[in-house]
Amino acid sequence: MKEYIQNLNLIDLISEKHKALREEVNGRSSYPLNKTETHILAMLDLHTVLSISEVSRLIHISRQGAQKCINGLLAEEYVKIAQVVGNARDKHITLTGKGSEACRSMLEIKVEMERQIIDRLGQEQVELLKKLLTEEWL
Q1: Which pTM was predicted?
Q2: Which InterPro entries match (predicted)?
């Protein structure tokens, strides 16, 4: 482990671990997606259909940033525009088969990584960590 990590405060320590985990997931993935793109795909996998405005609010980026990222995902056929009855104003986005497969593949990577973390830290420690991270303390 990097020496400097021993002296980090809690916030920076969580940030460093999050960054390292995301880099590992992206490194193992066969899909050439950046962090924002994977976040958008994950939100679409969770919510099924979202407008561009909803995507921008959920992942905390500008509407223009969301639009640019979604345009890239449209071009690579990870997402498609969905017609929503009664709403012709907003563009709604949904996953394509390729987008769903990318989400499934990333979930498999995360499950395998969690198994490796359990092997290293132990089931009880991982359950405690999950419990602490899901509590209302922020």
Answers
A1: 0.83
A2: HTH_MarR-typ, WH-like_DNA-bd_sf, WH_DNA-bd_sf
